[in-house]
Design brief:
171 residues, 5-stranded antiparallel sheet, alpha+beta, 4 helices
Length: 171
Amino acid sequence: MSVRSFSNTRETGEVLKGIVKETNAVTALLISREGVCISSAGQTESLNATALAALVAGMFAATREVANIVGEEHFSILLQQGEKRNIHISLIGQRSMLVVVFEDNKRIGRVRLATRKAARLLLDTLEKPPAKKEAGGRDDISMPDFREYALNLVDQIFNVGKEDDAPSGPR
């Protein structure tokens, strides 16, 4: 099994740019349920989109289990509110999530409305058949390769500044 080729990233990027503009959000990301960042818009330079995508996917999986405990199949929207920034996460079909990072709590209604409209556009875009690859096009990353990459990335995130337990060489 391989992660789907997202050849429509230009179209999804335009939808995300529209969300950022309409809501004055900091950034918007479209991620897969496996934790792969498909497309992004806004201020992404100061943000580790790869780590955020992996962690949000894990958080959504945990929330799905909480939903099952309380008798729901899943929760389709998550809202995390901080002192300075907020994150709105919504399901897009069965395989994707839309993540919007914004700063003004008063914009929650506007963000929800914009993401609801964008969800339909994104779902239509993602369901389009992928464009044919050009000669010499890159193959999709396999799930085992991505899994190993994601696990290594999470290890790096949580081991920053820690010394290795194993000796570095002969003594």
